């Protein structure tokens, strides 16, 4: 299909070069976006002790901002910077480095945003991981038309596996005004996990329920992961506790919290989880 008109969209990609596969996946993503979306503003926000993506971003027509730092990767703050502060377009998308979306699904998602929807996921919930030769084929030629959804056959312990059936992350598209009005991403979420689910619940509380594009999965390009006992996953458990706390707030309480700056990184840290909250996070 011809490139999708995306002149009213900003795509924000937080990036950290923590392993070679990340840079390979970013190169594939940028090539895919340049081929399939016409006029989109693509912003790569790189953060880490070594910066390596500037030339790659320029080669694909993307805007690059780099912060050389050994501090932890703060995805939610980076996304707010890109989607609220740096973008001036009506729509914005948070986009994971390792994720590809079908252009047909992007066209449908943009149509929903232009019709007045404020929170759209350009997929049906399925998140399909490609590893081994399947991943290598997309790195060599990032053309999803050769991988139609009806021919995807995820199977356990194969090169094509189903990571999630009802994902709310990977690619999240919003109307920027509604997104900012609902507080943007909650910057007390660190490490990985539950920040997109919390945003989805909060947007729904503000009258912007999730809209999906049926019939299309997201594609995830495989990469090595930390072990379950690593600090990354411990941070995810803390995020799960925070998401549960946020889910208990009604809209007036959310509005007060947002007005007080409670979703920003410089807000006072949330109270430590109780033992009941930790136990629930570990068991569910």
Explain how this protein is built.
The chain is an alpha/beta fold and 284 residues long. It has a single domain (7-124, 166-283), classed as Spore Coat Polysaccharide Biosynthesis Protein SpsA, Chain A. It contains ten helices and 13 strands. The strands form three sheets. A seven-stranded mixed beta sheet has the order 5-4-2-6-11-8-12, with helices on both faces.
Relevant terms:
single chain, 13 strands, 38% helix, Spore Coat Polysaccharide Biosynthesis Protein SpsA, Chain A, 7-stranded mixed beta sheet, 284 residues
Q: Runs with pLDDT <50, length 5+?
A: 227-233
Helix amount, in percent? 25-40%
Structural class: alpha/beta
Major β-sheet annotation: 7 strands, mixed
What is the number of domains?
A: 1
List SSEs in N-to-C order.
EEHEEHEHEEHEEHEEHHEEHHH
CATH class group:
Alpha Beta
CATH architecture: Alpha-Beta Complex
Main sheet: strand order = 5-4-2-6-11-8-12
Structural topology:
Blueprint: E1 4-5, E2 9-15, H1 20-36, E3 37-38, E4 41-48, H2 54-59, E5 63-68, H3 75-86, E6 91-95, E7 99-101, H4 103-114, E8 119-121, E9 127-130, H5 132-140, E10 160-164, E11 171-175, H6 176-181, H7 195-205, E12 211-212, E13 218-221, H8 231-247, H9 251-259, H10 275-283
Helix pairs in contact: 7-8, 8-10
């Amino acid at each position: 299909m011809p490139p999708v008109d995306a002149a009213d969209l900003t795509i924000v990609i937080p990036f950290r070069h923590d392993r070679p596969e990340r840079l390979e996946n970013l190169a594939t993503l940028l090539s895919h976006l340049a081929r399939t979306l016409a006029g989109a503003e693509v912003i790569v926000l790189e953060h880490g002790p070594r910066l390596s993506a500037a030339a790659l971003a320029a080669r694909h027509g993307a805007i690059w901002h780099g912060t050389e730092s050994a501090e932890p990767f703060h995805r939610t703050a980076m996304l707010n910077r890109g989607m609220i502060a740096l973008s001036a377009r009506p729509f914005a998308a948070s986009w994971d480095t390792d994720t590809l979306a079908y252009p047909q699904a992007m066209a449908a998602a943009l149509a929903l945003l232009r019709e007045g929807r404020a929170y759209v996921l350009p997929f049906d919930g399925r998140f399909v991981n490609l590893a081994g030769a399947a991943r290598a084929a997309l790195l060599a030629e990032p053309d999803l038309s050769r991988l139609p959804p009806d021919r995807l056959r995820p199977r356990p312990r194969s090169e094509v596996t189903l990571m999630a059936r009802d994902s709310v992350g990977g690619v999240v598209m919003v109307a920027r005004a509604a997104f900012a009005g609902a507080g943007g991403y909650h910057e007390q979420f660190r490490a990985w996990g539950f920040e997109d689910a919390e945003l989805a619940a909060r947007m729904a509380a503000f009258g912007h329920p999730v809209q999906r594009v049926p019939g299309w999965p997201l594609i995830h390009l495989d990469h090595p992961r930390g072990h379950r006992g690593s600090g990354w996953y411990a941070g995810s458990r803390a995020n799960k506790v925070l998401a549960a706390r946020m889910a208990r707030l009604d809209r007036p309480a959310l509005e007060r919290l947002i007005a007080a700056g409670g979703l920003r990184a410089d807000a006072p840290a949330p109270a430590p989880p109780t033992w009941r909250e930790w136990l629930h996070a570990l068991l569910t």
